[in-house]
Predict the structure.
Amino acid sequence: MMEEERLPIEEPKIKKKKHPLRVILIILLVLCLLFCSLFAAIFFFVRRTDYRPYEPIAEEAEYNLPRKDLKGVRNILLIGTDARDPNIESRSDVIIVVSICPRQRKIYLTSILRDSYVEIPGYGRNRINHAYQMGGARLLVQTIEKNFAIRIDQYAQVDFYSFVDIIDSMNGVEIEVTDEEVHYVNAYLSEINQLMGIDPQDSFLERGGKYMLNGRQALAFSRIRYIGTDFQRTARQRQVLEAAVSKLKRSSPKTLLHTADAVLSNITTDISDFSMTWLALRGIFLINYEMVSARIPYDGLWQNALTESGQEVLEIDFPATNARFRTMIYGGK
């Protein structure tokens, strides 16, 4: 008899056990690599800023400043100078403290009026906009810390021409201009055009209404101080800043990249490349924070005064102002 052909017996397949920990580690590794790649890309992108740090000032210990990073708050001083010639010392035409408050999920834009009468360390009492001319960003920071008891963590400074480039990079900002403001916008615009070698009447506005202002027009609008004095002028500056941020929230990645390039190429700052990279990464979350506009002096906490030389200044009630300023950004004492 023929023996039956025996088929090989297949051994049952043993399913490999999945190791959840290994999967999690692989996912974390991939995320880490992606984050590091993004961090490196942003880090090399931000290196085009004009980085100008300064040494800490010993006298700061006497100013009763809040401790660093109290409640996660970071105060960045925005300085806009009226520089027309880079070889001539200029005054600070724009002084805005940007307070990033993560616990409140708010960003406060607090203008300090340039006629505020303050103590400028080493120079005596004067208008605050003279501090930058006397000692640059370092002295202006020191002046704000001494008088308002608020710690300034970093600063960023732009001049006339930088401001124009930044607004143009986002294709303008939408602003409502009144009939009364049109006259002054055109007057300032004529001066700006001539400084930039452009036809004096280029981009003139015909009448009041809602416009998409280009960089030169937005600068002219921000400089108006003959309607409502400096109080309304600083309100216009914050209006332009808020309009720019609002537009960027709705912009395409290409526009955001173009604007970021313009900002980084046009600012002078003491924010290091590393800190700037972290700030850029945080911007993903900060973009949804509520933006709140404020200004110093506060209503009821100032009065008009004359200096010995006859200059009109704003005399501020500093104890009440400083208490209100701190409460606003820190959410309490």
User: Anything to note?
Assistant: The first strand starts at residue 50 and ends at 51. The mean pLDDT is 85. The chain has nine helices and 13 strands.
